[in-house]
Write a structure and sequence with these properties.
By secondary structure, the protein is of the alpha+beta class. Helix content is 39%, strand content 14%. The chain has 3 domains: 3-119, Cytochrome c-like domain (Cytochrome Bc1 Complex, Chain D, domain 2), CATH 1.10.760.10; 123-177 and 234-253, Orthogonal Bundle (Cytochrome Bc1 Complex, Chain D, domain 2), CATH 1.10.760; 182-227, SH3 type barrels (Roll).
């Protein structure tokens, strides 16, 4: 037996003997899941998990699987251990094949989006890119620090799934949430105001304008208001590498302070 064949055999034996959580660590790219894995996980979720966790993963108090909110788990390996071992609060253990376990974790990490193919990199590198090459901190506010030109990201790790974050970085216009769409308001006096709509009621529209000023505009003074579909945020597909985008996604997932 050649040295290479011997090494491959040894690795195969190790994988078969490893505990469930270690199967996820053994992937070529930890944190990366293909659509095939996510699709397999969706089927398993609907047959094994839906009854207790619900269609959207939010039927257990303190847990929202689709949004990545867990009681105990942080990493993919933590999720695998909870699934295979169960919990003291009543969740039973599940005996799954390695591919099935990977599928369930992939489906959860994709935010229940079966069309996604996600990758989560290194959070420390992601923060460096966020503050440096990506220049994200020039528009986004985190933890009470930074400008208000773009939506604050202090709790983005709770609000958005990895697949959604990846999509928003690569193509911001395609991934833009309705509440974050920029508006252009023409007042009856002829002035034009651009910014982000924060709230709207019967009598007024509250926005933060492009000078970072909070403004409440009476509707009786507004001539027209148009909601734009193109994000002012630049698309980073081609500006950042796939590895760098994966690292930024990892950093954003750590932002969980409301």
């Amino acid at each position: 037996m050649s040295r290479r064949s011997w090494l491959l055999t040894l690795i195969a034996v190790f994988l078969l003997a490893a505990p469930a959580g270690a199967q996820l660590l053994a992937q070529d790219h930890p944190g990366q899941y293909a659509q095939e894995d996510i699709g397999r996980g969706a089927v398993l979720y609907n047959t094994q998990c839906n009854q207790c966790h619900g269609r959207d993963g939010d039927q257990i108090s303190g847990v929202d699987l689709r949004r990545g909110q867990f009681r105990r788990a942080q990493s993919d390996e933590d999720l695998a251990q909870v699934i295979t071992r169960g919990t003291s609060s009543g969740m039973p253990p599940f005996a799954l094949q390695p591919s099935e376990l990977t599928g369930i974790v992939a489906f959860i990490r994709a935010g229940f989006d079966t069309t996604a193919s996600i990758r989560v990199g290194n959070a420390a590198r992601g923060r460096t890119i966020f503050d440096g090459k990506g220049q994200c901190a020039t528009c986004h506010r985190v933890g009470g620090t930074g400008p208000r030109l773009a939506p604050a990201l202090s709790d983005i790790g709770l609000a958005r799934a990895p697949a959604s974050l990846d999509r928003s970085i690569r193509d911001p216009s395609a991934g833009m949430m309705p509440i974050n769409r920029p508006v252009q308001i023409v007042m009856k006096n002829g002035s034009t105001i651009r910014g982000r709509r924060l709230n709207e009621d019967t009598h007024s529209v509250q926005i933060i304008d492009d000078q970072e000023r909070l403004r409440s505009l009476p509707k009786t003074d507004i001539r027209t208001m148009s909601v734009e579909t193109t994000s002012p945020m630049p698309a980073y597909a081609g500006k950042l590498t796939d590895d760098e985008i994966a690292d930024v996604v990892a950093f954003l997932l750590t932002l969980r302070t409301p």
